[in-house]
Amino acid sequence: MQVYLAAPFFSDEQVARVEAIEKALTVNATVDDFYSPRLHQDTEAEQFSAEWAKEVFKRDVTQVMQADVLVTVADYVHDDADSGTAFEQGMAYALNKPVVMFEEVPYKTNLMLTESLTTFVNQAKTLETLDFTNLPETTFEGERL
Asked: Which residues contact 116 (CB under 8 A, 6 or more apart)?
């Protein structure tokens, strides 16, 4: 089972959250491997240049297409979801890939995210034992926008 981890990692809090999820996926017996864009930002090009952006975009999109399932982190800044994560979740939904959405802080979450998920979790520890080969269908627990 190949997992793609879609999550923002722009603040210390977000990085700590993603690291906890990466750790949980590492110990999960039903996960063969996972791809976390946070760990794949290096290219030959200067970071944040047009060339860098093209390479990172292409690599991440390819990894979404190759993944069996996506884990996405709903993380809002100023009542707005991370646009990259939302893009990846929408792409997974369009490709008929299951989406496990993680949200530990209760936000008013956009219905496009809440209605495109397969499984909702609100604790990173849950991802240590979640059966990714037989995902339960659960609904979002929280307020919607």
From this structure: 89, 90, 92, 93, 99
Contact between 123 and 105 (Cβ < 8 Å): no
Q: Which helix (H) or strand (E) holds 13?
A: helix 12-27
Task: Indicate the residue type of 29.
Answer: A
**Domain spanning 2-133, CATH class:** alpha beta
pTM higher than the cut 0.90? yes
Label residue 17 exposed, middle or buried (CB < 10 Å: 0-12, 13-18, 19+). buried
> In this predicted model, which residue has the larger pLDDT, 107 or 132?
132
Whether the CA torsion 1, 75, 60, 116 is positive or negative: it is: positive
Residue 106 CA to residue 76 CA, distance in Å, equals 10
20 to 13, 14, 78: CA distances (angstroms): 11, 10, 23
